[in-house]
Amino acid sequence: MSASLARASAAMKAAMQGKSVPPYFGVGFDDVGELFSVFTPKRWELIGALRECGAMTVAELARQLKRDYKNVYSDCERLIEWMAIEKNENGLVFAPYDEIVVDLKLPDRRAA
After folding, report:
1. What are 64-103's pLDDT values in tens digits?
2. Considering the domain boundaries, does residue 64 fall inside one?
3. Residue 61 falls within a domain, yes or no?
4. In the chain, what is the greatest distance between 2 CA atoms, to the nearest angstrom?
């Protein structure tokens, strides 16, 4: 939360000085378990295939990954929900980002 506020504060200062502020997009998770429930190894592989091959139908993606269509469809819906991938007006899914940066805070140290 403090990193988000610091980023917002810096952006406001730059904007007030007439400087260009690059866009920033981020999502947050309640805990690391939620992060790993969204970004499973199979879903990382799915995102990688979309980055490598470009936009395609879910059926094409399932064939590319050699996975069941229903499972790939479900994974795509979940990743679209979290804005990690998108679906265009032609119904093709694609990965719009060059990178996904994960920033994890370690649990606080317990008092001795």
Report:
1. 999 999 999 999 999 999 999 999 999 999 999 988 888 7
2. yes
3. yes
4. 58
Q: Give the CATH number for residue 89.
A: 1.10.10.10
Burial status of residue 61 (CB atoms within 10 A of its CB: 0-12, 13-18, 19 or more):
buried
Asked whether the beta carbons of 102 and 2 are under 8 A apart, the reply is no
Q: Is residue 101 part of a domain?
A: no
Q: Number of folded domains in the chain?
A: 1
Question: What is the Cβ-side half-sphere exposure of residue 90, based on CA atoms within 13 angstroms?
Answer: 6
Determine, yes or no, domain membership for 53: yes
Q: What is the pLDDT of residues 33-75, one digit of tens each?
A: 889 999 999 999 999 999 999 999 999 999 999 999 999 999 9
Task: Tell me the whole-structure pTM to 2 decimals.
Answer: 0.74
Structure tokens at 56: 């395609």
Q: What Rg value do the Cα atoms of the chain yield, rounded?
A: 18
Query: Which residue range forms the structural domain that includes residue 79?
Result: 30-94
